[in-house]
Design goal:
The chain has 305 residues and is an alpha+beta fold. Strands 8, 9, 10, 11, 12, 13, 14, 15 and 16 form a 9-stranded mixed β-sheet that branches. Strands 1, 2, 3, 4, 5, 6, 7 and 17 form an 8-stranded antiparallel β-sheet that branches. The longest helix is centred in the first third of the chain and has 15 residues. The radius of gyration is 19 Å and the shape is globular. 43% of the residues are buried.
Length: 305
């Protein structure tokens, strides 16, 4: 995967990819004082391109800034147009979109109220985060030894850059052990989410996912809950334990990067039949029908270029 494109949007200007740089004393580099989003633009079945749930993602970006006390200096409307512009400038039909807001150069130290807040939007081509094979046949996951954040230790509803050290530790741990993804437990030992995805399980055709307690409120998670309910599945938002996960019929991850990725194994225990289950496949197919513009019922979720 190459991140290099022609332009990056930086503080209201289109700059060359090579020139989108920051100083080594940038505050966010030292203290993690940044927040970001991950968004996808899809090429639709009719050949046009559209960004999936762009406004919702940018609203969550704005919420992150409010939670952390570093509010965005741009409106959602301004960032919407900037996002569409940077995709057009780079002539991409499909891409991953990374807006990031970060406390910039100025004072050093934990308290730096006079430092500027810089904002950047970059785009690049990116395929399936957990692999095309994973989308079809499922991946192997392992419960990490690292606990997910307590809600009063880190602000779990903010997509803060500093939060993701926890994810990096968990991801590195399980990858070195030969697994594809980490599943993380909350501070009370219940299943929380993955290193960068929300998690669902299916038992007796009922769909269950963790409630919005210690987890990031995923945009894809919300989309899947809506799609599943519209298709007639009962969807339950409640805590569950790792042994309930071991004995479920099906399980899958959701996220902008992961999209809808089946889980075939957890902690060396086969999930269901050991491959993508029928409910997961049904929901996955519906999701891709939506993002590719084939299902007009959810056309309001697409912002066309």
């Amino acid at each position: 995967m190459s991140l290099k494109t022609e332009k990056i949007w930086l503080d209201g200007e289109m700059v060359r990819w090579e020139d989108a740089t920051v100083h080594v004393l940038t505050h966010a580099l030292h203290y993690g004082t940044a927040y970001f989003e991950g968004i996808r633009c899809y090429e639709l079945a009719d050949g046009r391109s559209a960004v999936f749930r762009l406004v919702e993602h940018l609203r969550r970006l704005s919420d992150s800034g409010k939670i952390l006390g570093f509010p965005l200096p741009y409106s959602i409307e301004q960032l919407t147009e900037a996002t569409l512009d940077i995709i057009r400038v780079n002539k991409l039909k499909e891409c991953y979109i990374r807006p990031v807001a970060f406390v910039g150069l100025g004072e050093m130290g934990l308290y730096a109220p006079n430092n500027p807040l810089n904002v950047s939007i970059a785009v690049w081509p990116w395929g399936a985060y957990l692999g095309d094979e994973g989308l079809k046949n499922g991946i192997r996951a392992k419960v990490s030894s690292f606990t997910r954040h307590h809600v009063n230790v880190m602000m779990t509803k903010s997509k803060a850059a500093g939060n993701y050290i926890n994810s990096v530790l968990a991801k590195n741990e399980v990858k070195k052990a030969g697994y594809d993804e980490a599943i993380m437990l909350d501070a009370e030992g219940y299943v929380s989410e993955a290193s960068g995805e929300n998690i669902f399980l299916v038992r007796n055709r009922k769909v269950k996912t963790t409630p919005l307690t210690s987890i990031l409120p995923g945009i894809t998670r919300d989309s899947i809950i809506t799609l599943a309910r519209d298709k007639g599945y009962e969807v339950i938002e409640e805590r569950f334990t790792r042994d309930e996960l071991y004995t479920t019929d099906e399980a899958f991850f959701t996220g902008t990067a992961a999209e809808v990725t089946p889980i075939r194994e957890v902690d060396d225990r086969q999930i269901g039949s050991g491959c993508r289950g029928p409910v997961t496949e049904d929901i996955q197919r519906s999701f891709f029908d939506v993002v590719k513009g084939r299902d007009k019922k959810y056309s309001s979720w697409l912002t066309h270029l």
